[in-house]
Amino acid sequence: MLEKIREGSQGVIAKSILVLVILSFAFTGVSSYLGSSTEAAAATVNGEEISESALEQAYQNERARLEQQLGEMFAALSADERYLSSVKQSVLERLVAEKLLDQTATDLGLRVSDAQIKSAIMTEPAFQTDGQFDNDRYQAILRQLGYQANSFRDMMRTDMTRRQLVASLVGSEFVLPGEANYLADIQGQTRDIRYHWVDAAPFIAEAVVTDEQSKSYYDANLAQFMSPETLSLEYIELNAKDMAAGVTVSDEEAKTYYDENKQQYLKAEKRLAAHILVSLGDDDSAAKAKADAIYAKLQAGEGFAELAKAESEDTFSGEQGGQLDWFEPGVMEPAFDEVLYSLSKGDYSAVVKTSFGYHIIKLLDVQPAAEAAFEGVKSKILAQLKEKQAVDQYFGLQQTLADVTYEVPDTLSEAATELGIEVKSTPVFSRNNAPAPFDNPEVLKAAFSTNVLLDRMNSDVIEIEANHAMVVRIKSHTAAGTVDFAKVKSAIVERLQQEQANEVARAKAQELMTSFSSDSAGSDYITKTKLGRFDQEIDGAIVGKAFQMAQPATSAVVDTVALASGYAVVVLDKVNAAEAIDDNMLSSLKQRLSSQYSEGDYRSLIATLKANGEVLYSSAQ
């Protein structure tokens, strides 16, 4: 076999294939050196691509935002692939809109100055403490988000330029006083009505529904009688939090732990730092030369604070003479940290390089380390030791749980006996109404899996959250399907009887409406004057009908409306103009109308840019 392969590799065809393979590798290598990318585009906007990686990053950010906003509800929603698909599509549409706005802003020559960016950062509430800009908070948030000062400023510039365009086109919308007044007049109207309720309840006893009618309704509306797949589970669970409640730790044990781990209860030394920063740019050597020149001025006797204000490219600390904040060890980058903790109070360093640029660091003040008293940390130590013992116990039992439920896969009793816990049961539930914690996606996935549902075996150990696990097995299961006619017949009969009774009530209401006259309308009609749109004393259907009816001219206007049980005859006697309109109400209406107009303008702007441009989506979207 090997000889045939060697012989074949010497042939003309094999050599040709080898040449093509070599060329393909060569071109691949050249293209990678030239910097071209083979990443597919999620969309192309007027020739500019939105990469799949950019879409994925924006999508993951949106998922994180939704998870934080919706909490446990998001876990249930995210189990639906259609929901996640719609979220991803909306994120892509947002990226397309942003790309269109950026292109338009560039075409119009819109710009944002450094002073505007600085002002926006200084006034951003996220960077403030007690209403004042906090440089330490600003730097910490940037580090947390993975930004450097320069890249963050670039992002701010793009965003503010985009908002400048939107504000110039959309923010110019205004609301005329007459519009707000007209809407206030409409909303503030009241109406004088009379109404008579024709109750369907007395007619239900007279309604006759045959078996054929109920069966015909059932056959014609099978979709209404579909039952979801349901099940109930047996389960055993381990939870370290529950175990901790049964753990006892003495004060002596806590004191021993404190004595053996005093280093944990030291308040670390803090140092108040200042610096002069020269940011990294395209020319690293120029930045280094500038930093060296500043250092030479310091050596020549010029003041640190004055040089920081004049030369530092960290604008915010520069205005404070270079002062940053109090830092514990390990907060700043290692190179900065090492130099800061090597200085004596009042000294400054030579030029130091970090990822932010070149620094000259000065130590302004020192807060020595201090030891926390035992009584001050006693409760924390007790809780910590209880939790540790519970977690240790949990992991030992979890392994036993995994072993026994695997070795004896057709029951939970063996594992429950081994662990000294009881087997519990859930109520019957479907995928969409599972009680906590069985609404956890991993539990639902296991419960409806082939191994558990069809083979009726124990699940694997499912981790609900940290140090909380369970094993489940099927107790009962009902497949999805149509509910038998016999089970729903009585409900169908009641519904058809109600419909027949409602029909009788409708006919009687129609008769009353046809024969109505103001003279004959007596005590059977209930009078309501100055009825408001949001009046809750009267059935909402009657209120809605009253405000749909035309304004009376010479005589009252009469109509009927369906209620939950029966019909009502509604008589509109008079439309009352709005009374004194509150200035706050007018202001609120103006803001609402302005927001609606602006939203409409923004959507129209994006639609116009799409129509006049070329937006192509990948086939995967």
What can you see in these coordinates?
The protein is an alpha+beta fold. Among the domains are: 1-35; 42-97, no CATH class; 190-221 and 488-576, no CATH class; 230-247 and 379-481; 269-368, Chitinase A, domain 3 (Roll). It is built from 24 helices and 22 strands. The strands form seven sheets. Strands 7, 14, 15, 16 and 17 form a five-stranded antiparallel beta sheet that branches. α13 (251-260) packs across α18. It is a single-pass type II membrane protein. The chain crosses the membrane at residues 12-34. Residues 268-365 form the PpiC domain.
The percent of residues in helical segments reads 40-55%
Question: Helical stretch count?
Answer: 24
Termini distance?
A: 48 Å
Our Rg estimate from Cα atoms comes to 37 Å
**Oligomeric state of this protein:** single chain
Largest sheet: 5 strands, antiparallel
Kindly report the average pLDDT value. 85
